Every structure is written in C-alpha cells, then in structure tokens.
C-alpha cells in the first residue's frame, strides 16, 4: 500500500482514521492445518513512513488470530483481533485501541440447505477515562437454499450499540435471490 505522506503531526478527530497511517504497510500471516479439519491462523500488520514521531503516543498496528474446526457438515470458528489506532499527543479523547471477537457456527444440512449463526463483539477503548468504552454487539442467523442455478438466502441481523453509542440498536432482515445465467 502506498500514498502521500501527511505533512502535519496534529491529528484531529475528523481525520484520525487517515492521518498518521504512513506510506507503507507490512503484513505477516501464518496459517496451519495441524490435524484434519482444524485450521489456525494469525496475522500482524504494521505501518511505516508515518508522520508520527517517536515521542508521540502511538503508531498504528493490528493483529489477529483464529481457530476453525470442521467436522462432517459442521464448522465452528473463533477469532480475535486488536487494532492500535494512530494517535498524536493531542488532548482530544481518541479511540486508542479496538478489540474484536467473533464466534460462528455453520451447518450444511444437506447439499442444498445451509444455516449459520454468528456473534461479534467490538469494544473501542478511548485514550482517557473521560469517555465510557461501549461494546458494540452484532448477532446474525442466516440460511441459504439452492435449487439448480438459483439460491435463496435470508439473514436476520441485530446490532446493539451501533457506532459504539450506548442504546443505539438496529435490526435488519436481508432476503436475497441469485440466479445463474
């Protein structure tokens, strides 16, 4: 990844996401399948060429790990990810770190029908204790049925504390029909 260097070291709340990310990113990934049906993996990313100096609070980086096990027609998976956001020494209360956890279960009922459930949690930790850290939670249940070249799928999703705002909840149902040409 590449881009122009940002000339300033002052990061405002509006540009926290893009300022200080730098001009390069290096990623490392390891995936292994030590036994039949089991897959484990981990990754790490770091940014270089940032406009943040060594004395400033934090340069951006992220890491994740997961484990997935398939037995017959069922698959269960669990993963965690942590993101350290770019932060300057400004007094503004930025999101310093985000922690994410995801769990899922899917079952292939037969050759045509699959069902799945997933649960995700994400907590944004702020730079100071002045802002309460709110946990965003999402859960979904989905099913897909295939007949010849047509797939019908439905998913019901509930989000709690959307945008890390307490009691801001959203629910949705998505119905999808796909047909092969």
Question: How is this structure best described in words?
Answer:
The protein has strands at residues 24-32, 38-48, 61-71, 74-84, 95-108, 113-126, 135-147, 150-160, 170-179. The protein is mostly beta strands. A hairpin with a 2-residue loop joins strand 7 (135-147) and strand 8. Mean pLDDT is 84; it is low at 1-17. The protein is globular. A 9-stranded antiparallel beta sheet has the order 1-2-3-4-5-6-7-8-9, with no helix packed on it.
Share of residues in strands: over 45%
Strand line-up of the largest beta sheet: 1-2-3-4-5-6-7-8-9
- The number of helices is 0
Structural class: mainly beta
| Approximate shape | globular
In whole angstroms, the N-to-C terminal distance is 36 Å
Oligomer description: single chain
Would you tell me the overall average pLDDT? 84
Q: In which range does the helix fraction lie?
A: under 10%
Largest sheet report: 9 strands, antiparallel
Mind telling me the C-alpha Rg? 20 Å
């Amino acid at each position: 990844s590449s881009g122009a260097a940002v000339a300033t070291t002052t990061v405002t709340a509006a540009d926290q996401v893009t300022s200080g990310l730098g001009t390069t990113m290096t990623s490392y990934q390891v995936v292994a399948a030590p036994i039949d049906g089991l897959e484990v993996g981990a990754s790490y990313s770091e940014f270089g060429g940032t406009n943040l100096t060594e004395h400033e609070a934090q340069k951006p980086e992220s890491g994740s790990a997961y484990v997935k096990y398939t037995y017959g027609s069922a698959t269960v998976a669990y993963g965690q990810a942590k993101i350290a956001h770019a932060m300057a020494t400004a007094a503004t209360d930025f999101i310093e770190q985000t922690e994410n956890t995801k769990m899922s279960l899917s079952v292939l009922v037969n050759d045509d029908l699959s069902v799945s459930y997933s649960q995700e949690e994400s907590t944004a930790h702020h730079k100071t204790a002045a802002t309460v850290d709110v946990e965003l939670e999402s859960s979904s249940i989905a099913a897909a049925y295939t007949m010849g070249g047509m797939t019908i799928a439905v998913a019901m999703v509930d989000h709690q504390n959307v945008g890390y705002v307490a009691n801001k909840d959203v629910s949705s149902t998505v119905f999808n029909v796909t047909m092969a040409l």
